[in-house]
Design brief:
Strands 2, 4, 5, 6, 9, 10 and 11 form a seven-stranded mixed beta sheet that branches. A four-stranded antiparallel beta sheet has the order 1-3-8-7, with no helix packed on it. The chain has strands at residues 3-7, 10-13, 18-25, 32-39, 46-51, 58-60, 68-73, 78-83, 92-100, 112-113, 117-122. A hairpin with a 4-residue loop joins strand 7 and strand 8. The N and C termini lie far apart (40 Å). The chain is 0% helix and 51% strand. With 123 residues, it is an all-beta fold. It is built from no helices and eleven strands.
Length: 123
């Protein structure tokens, strides 16, 4: 059974940091590209970052470049999102997702999804 379980969200002041984790099971993690997406209230789910199966290639939304860093540990079947210099507009539920093969930025291009972790940034 495929599972993606996010953790690490919380309430943080503007300028603060968090480290989000996503633990995967039930599929061959090391063969899958992984992505982070987020969804704010009343808005569509949007791409945040993605990492290739090897960890060599990454991609970021322009809004988070230089502040967020995606990484993975294939030995632990876990993908991470380090989020720094947080802004109130980063407030959202953050989801991790998996897709076989190359990284993509489209929501519809991912096969498996987690339940999400809430990140709230106060001003």
């Amino acid at each position: 059974q495929v599972q993606l379980v996010e953790s690490g969200g919380g309430l943080v002041q503007a300028g603060g940091s968090l480290r989000l984790s996503c633990a995967a099971s039930g599929f061959r993690f090391s063969s899958y590209a992984m992505g982070w997406f987020r969804q704010a209230p009343g808005k569509d789910r949007e791409f945040v970052a993605a990492i290739s199966w090897s960890g060599v290639t990454t991609d970021y939304a322009d809004s988070v470049k230089g502040r967020f860093t995606i990484s993975r540990d294939n030995a632990k079947n876990t993908v991470y999102l380090q989020v720094n210099s947080l802004k109130p507009e980063d407030t959202a539920v953050y989801y991790c997702a998996a897709r076989l093969s190359l990284i993509r930025v489209g929501v519809d291009e991912y096969d498996y999804w987690g339940q999400g972790t809430q990140v709230t940034v106060s001003s």
